[in-house]
Amino acid sequence: MFNKNNKEAPEQPDKAAELLAKKEENTKLYEQLTNKNREYMVKLNRSLDDHGVPEERKTIIYNDMLKNIIKQQSQHLTARRIYGTVTDQANYLTENQTAGEQGETVRSETWKIYLDGALTAGGAYTGITGLISLFTDQAATMRLFMAFLAFAIGGLALMVIAKYAPVPGQKGGFLKYILATSGVMIGFVLLMTLGAFPSSINPVLSPTISVIIGVVAIGAKIYLKRRLSIQGTLF
Prior knowledge:
This protein is mostly helical. The chain is 68% helix and 0% strand.
């Protein structure tokens, strides 16, 4: 199962070297498992064999799983608690790809993800609010401080949501994602109400200015995402 000498070399040399490296790493990782987690992996290996999963794919699957299991062993979480029963996990893996197989996206630095989120949320909120005022003949409602909060708090909200986005093959992530999303959206709405507080230093922005701010922000988001190679964002 985790024997580094058990090779099924693919046609591409680079891929073969990568798989061999993963097999060697899997062997070392397997030795770090508790007895209960080792038993889980042995049973899973048998189940995947029964499903006809090739060795090449199992190597990638195990590399993802072993790293995650070892990371959470310190918190006294077993493989069964993380992934469910062997049968459930085998069925899931047979029908779905893991993050490793999909070419897991490397997340950019936190400040880059925040910047991208701020431009996205702030630009969308400000621009849409301006458009609504323009096309419905409603009085402008966007204030300067409200626009500032849309960028500042919106960036934080999207950064948190991106961080807790579910990882394929890992159970429990969806609940965290729902809780994180609900929390930041409620907080966003509550904090945005502060921006509407009338003040002599908090002037109302005309619909045209709001739209311009929104367009510039979205344009900057598209440019900087390419320029800075920002990865791991929602949009």
